[in-house]
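Lecture 7 notes: from sequence to structure.
We start with the chain below.
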Amino acid sequence: MLYQSFIEEVCNSVSGLTKSGEQVNVHKVLKNNGLELDGLVIVSDECNVVPTIYINSYFNQYLTGKSIDTIAEEIYHFYLQNKNKCQLDVNSFSEFENIKDMIAYKIINYERNIDLLKDIPYKKILDLAIVFYLKLNKDITGDFDAASASILIHNSHLDMWGIDIEKLYDIATANTPGILKSRIKSINTIINEIGQNKDETFSDLKLNKKGMQIDYNEVITGNALEMYILTNAEKTNGASCMFYKDVLKEFSKALGGDLYILPSSIHEVILLKKDNHNLVKSDLIEMVHEVNVEEVADDEILSDNVYEYNFERDEISI
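Predicted structure tokens for the same chain:
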């Protein structure tokens, strides 16, 4: 009841700040892994795309003393800063030829997203689901951050475009490696780059794992073990790179052996050479589970399983 009252008071306070032609609405948003958030939007006659502001996190600020009026002012200020940064021709999205080059895929956990998968096209693989979205570019989004601008593809989109899941999958498979190029770096290199304060680092991978490297090294003994991070150039939804054609094959060939794949989050995976005698798969599984529980945001967990890549078969298995 306290939280519901908070939402109502915030909406009323934000409404008091709005101008003519602006209307405040709150709706439930189903995010990855079943996370449900309350999204506040200010609908305006001036623009057809407005930011969704998730107000759940503001509740904790309210409980620690921040006033409703201050929260409302921050929300409205954010809206004013971002409302004109992205203008889309919504009608153009109804034509498949206009959007086919933007189609990409990402991977999420299958079991954790059963409800979401009822409404979106997907391909099940292992314990994961390949899902599809439109990766908007700078030409489409204007001043808006193109790295975070995307539209999840729903079943209704396929009906509108007159295509099936197989065509969607084929296009996404062809597009994604070019739109979001894969990157592999050793953790030692990443740590060195962070220490040197280089701009091109993986310190902002959205892992939410402070000291993650230490966690792994405490479990895996032996200084000779090398770990590698596989992600994409934007370091967002980069775990999908494990399914790019030839990425694991070429890396496994260069490393000279089969691989363990540790699902660090939806944004990246960790690659380990499998034939290291210090590695015990049951230990790796336990470690991944512990890190997921203690360090990874709920909506960024990919899996508690550890995958194996076989070079000869060019195959990923659990």
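Points to note: Residues 187 and 228 are 6 Å apart (CA to CA). Residues 140-147, 199-224 have pLDDT under 50 and may be disordered.
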